[in-house]
Amino acid sequence: MNTMTKQPASAKKVATFVASAIVLAVLPFIVGGTFGNSWVRTLDFALLYVMLALGLNIVVGFAGLLDLGFIAFYAVGAYTFGLLASPHFSLDMPFWITLPLGALFAAMFGVMLGTPVLKLKGDYLAIVTLGFGEIIRIFLNNLNAPVNLTNGPQGINLITPIEVAGFSFGKPHEFFGITFNGVYMYYYLFLALTVLVVIMAWRLQHSRIGRAWVAMREDDIAAAAMGINIRNIKLLAFALGALSGGVAGGLFASFQGFISPESFGLLESIMILAMVVLGGMGNIPGVILGAVVLTVVPEVLRDVIGPLQMATFGKMIIDPENARMLLFGLALVVMMLVRPEGMLPSKRRKAEFEDAKEGV
Amino acid sequence: MDIFIQQILNGLVLGSIYALIALGYTMVYGIMGLINFAHGEVVMVGGMVTVSVVSALMAAGLGLPPLALILIGLMVAVAACMLLGFTIERVAYRPLRKAQRLAPLITAIGVSIVLQQLAILVWGRNYIPFPPILDHDVIQIFGASITRLQMVIIVLCLAIMGGLLLVVEKTKLGRAMRATSQNPAVAGLMGVNVNTIISATFVIGSALGAIAGLMVATNYEQVHYYMGFMIGLKAFTAAVLGGIGNLAGAVAGGILLGIIESLGAGYIGDLTGGFLGSHYQDIFAFAVLIVVLIFRPSGLLGEKMADRA
Amino acid sequence: MAEVLLKIDGIVKRFGGLVALSEVGLTINKGEIYGLIGPNGAGKTTLFNVLTGLYMPDEGSFTFNGQNLFRAKPHVVVGAGIARTFQNIRLFKEMTALENVMVGRHIRSKAGALGAVLRDPRTMAEERAIRDKAMELLAYVGITEVAHEFAKNLSYGHQRRLEIARALATEPKLLALDEPAAGMNPRETEELKALMEKIRASGVTVLLIEHDVKLMMGLCDRIAVLDYGKKIAEGVPEVVRRDPKVIEAYLGVAHE
Ligand SMILES: Nc1ncnc2c1ncn2[C@@H]1O[C@H](COP(=O)(O)OP(=O)(O)O)[C@@H](O)[C@H]1O
Ligand SMILES: [Mg+2]
Asked: Is B236 in contact with B291 (CB distance < 8 Å)?
């Protein structure tokens, strides 16, 4: 519990830390070497989703505000990056401008969304945030006329890859005589930023601000009566959650080189929420696990279903894409039925869950 | 002026369908405080089954008149959806009744995905046209036109909604439903079988959903595995708009939303000097919702929930 | 002449048609224990909610320590120096006792999101101070041994004490307690009384709602009586006790 006072790191802790650092460092080579580069790409996406899920977790898990439109902030980050660093407006701004700017805009959107919904509770908040997310998507889809801002459904192409001091993450590079594909470069970049987001989320959780969030989540009236400025603390949650979403969005834009409104639909928002809930709302390791599982499992299914059918039946019985989503939906239901509190619930949430079971 | 009346009529058609679906959301919410995200998919299944049954009957060459075809199709769809609603509740929601609030939301989303994918398996990914038996006779009202079919949709929706209100207000079942939504524990103590009531609520809501599915299918003359998604979302929005948990609110919210949407789509071009076009139609639902909730955080007809400190 | 700490005048609070408070005025002096009594439903808790910013009064005036607090937000009221407990205990159940009290330090500390993330020396020092102060308050109300228990697992008496510690953490000038002895046995009540006297001795003014007339008479410097949202009497306990209007109010309605 005593997280803010420095404790001498035990040998065991150091060992775990070093071990996980090594595993994370060599992971893309193991994965890429065994399964091919497309799986390194999946790892990259897993990291993006970890950032997104951790951002949403600040809003839903820490502050208890149900947000069904979280993907809007990802979109804001992605379009900021895309518009400022692509041929669409013939701009080519460096990432150290576009990425923070995208994060900043996303945070501003977070506050803009948060302000009118301050008084809304629970499901009302959920549906309004959902509506807000849809509105953003519809605008992205249609703001190609009369002035072409977003290029509509075609989206934005040829977005500049991130480049540091002439070193482009988008191109293959040679080190020690081995050529590394861009997906490897991005892996380390994303990993670094993910670590930053994890640290941010962790430190927020164990701070004066984090306590205020929990207090508000548990009883906003008592929290107000203890001197917490509910409005500010709510807006802070929206802004900080959106900030992580915006960073992930910018990274996504540069990584893909292409963005379109299709990537920012309700289903994506729901997916991120599912990662948070399935992993263990409010618990950072749980949320990370949820994001990784829900990114990797559908990809595994994609790879496995086709060949498996061919092997067993000699022909395709079900369209693999169809089977993949079907299994995914079933998995959501079954996992929730088996572990409604998530895979790795926080101690606090577990207690809340037990309360609910005892109560009527 | 003609455009105005025309858009009001279009809005009424759309709005009655929203209202019918919104009732399904609001009944379930009123009783268990749960957003039944899968309700839109029940509507989709209703539409799909009707179209399949009608097509099959036509293929069988029995020479049945169109009305009979549709009625039989509807009956099968209603039965199928009632069973579906019953099953969804039993499998995906009942075990989670005492779990954290978000758990059933996630299973609801899971069920939604499963139903869509099953629909793809059965009916494929393409739009399926409604069999060519629909009557396209047009009636003129105040210079605006409406098909007879659309008139039927409006009248039927209103009748069904009236019937439902009667059931809830006047019958023993309705009383038990109201008691359960007030306080399930107390209702249980008073001898109400809460499980039965919840099942009944899902079954009734799903039957309404099936009828709505048919209406969507006839109105757009096509069905599609994804058709339940947007309309379900809008209908849920309508339920929230009216004050979720409140039946009259769902009806009012649905009709209001339909009218606002079609007026908005009709006039947005003029209002914005051509800057925004009618493809922004979908924005109205959400924009109106946000504005209403800001001023009335519990919806138009919802009870004001004063915080008791 | 005693120094005035809190002064309200003509406070009206309506709920729809119900007038829960009708032109209530009272003055609380620095350093006293001020009692508020009245039959159930008289409006005592409503008055607390008005005084702590949870309900917006419809009319009247409200000054505290020279500051105008009429229709002020709860956190402003707490900042000005009024803290409270709730009639139906409202602890943060899923937080430990220590964390509950630490939340009470929120208004007296500053670290924002940036400090939380950067963990600069100042933030770290503040966080240590929050924790130390919270531990100190747990000791002050006598529940150090349950510091790391979830609040919901504490005994009833401990929960009441924890709520007082949490309120004290905001460094109030006025501590408002809504029926703190409700549900306590005579021994616990006696201990609570000692605690309240200790708090007063430390310089904090106390506003107290209680039904236990004997307790109130022995503890309070002055008492006000509410009935149907109106103040019907105010003064030192012996006088109030003999006031015919008070006797009628208590005899006229069924006692709880
Ligand atoms: N939020 C509220 N909405 C409506 N009526 C309320 C509310 N809070 C209190 N009341 C009413 O105000 C009156 C006074 O209640 P209260 O202040 O709790 O009395 P007391 O604390 O003296 O027992 C009661 O009639 C109560 O029902
Ligand atoms: Mg009271």
From this structure: no
Region of poorest pLDDT, from A41-50, A126-135, A237-246, B20-29: A126-135
- Please name which of C45, C13, C21 lies closest in space to residue C228, comparing C-alpha atoms: C21
CATH of A37-358, one of 1.10.3470, 1.10.357, 1.10.510, 2.60.40: 1.10.3470
Same domain (yes/no): C150, C224: no
| Whether residue C124 sits in one domain with residue C145 | yes
Residue C199 in any domain: the answer is yes
C75 lies in the same domain as C198: yes
Say whether residue A259 is in contact with chain C using an 8 A CB cutoff: no
Amino acid identity at C65: N
Choose one of C15, C24, C37 to mutate for the ligand 1 pocket test, by most ligand atoms within 8 angstroms of C-beta.
Answer: C15
Domain termination site, one of C127, C157, C187: C157
**Which residue of chain A is at minimal alpha-carbon distance from B102?**
A277
- The nearest CA of chain A is from the CA of B243 a distance in Å of 10
Ligand 1, pocket-test mutation among C46, C56, C85, C255, most atoms within 8 A of CB: C46
CB < 8 Å from A in window 56-75 of C? 73-75
3 state DSSP class of B139:
strand
For residue range B115-134, list pLDDT tens digits in order.
999 999 999 999 999 888 88
In B, minimum Cα distance to C46 occurs at B309
Q: In this structure, which residues have their CB less than 5 angstroms from ion ligand 2?
A: C 45, 87
Cβ neighbours of residue B306 closer than 8 Å, sequence gap 6 or more:
C15
Distance CA A271, CA A268 (A): 5
Cβ–Cβ of C54/B306 closer than 8 Å? Answer: no
- The reply to whether ligand 1 has any atom less than 6 angstroms from the CB of C38 is yes
What are C30-54's pLDDT values in tens digits?
999 999 999 899 999 999 999 999 9
Residues C19 and C131 in one domain: no
CB B52 within 8 A of CB B111: no
Specify if C73 maps to a domain. yes
Any domain includes C164: no
pLDDT, one tens digit per residue, over A53-110 is 999 999 999 999 989 899 999 999 999 999 998 887 777 788 888 899 999 999 999 9
Q: Flag whether C115 is in a domain.
A: yes
C153/C212 same-domain check: no
Q: How far is CA A312 from CA A307, A315, A316, A326, in A?
A: 9, 8, 10, 19
According to DSSP, residue A156 is labeled B
In terms of Cα–Cα distance, which of A250, A89, A75, A92 is closest to A160?
A92
Prediction ipTM score: 0.93
Ligand 2 geometric centre to CA of C175 (Å): 16
CB C42 near ligand 1, within 6 Å: yes
Shared domain check, C198 and C77: yes
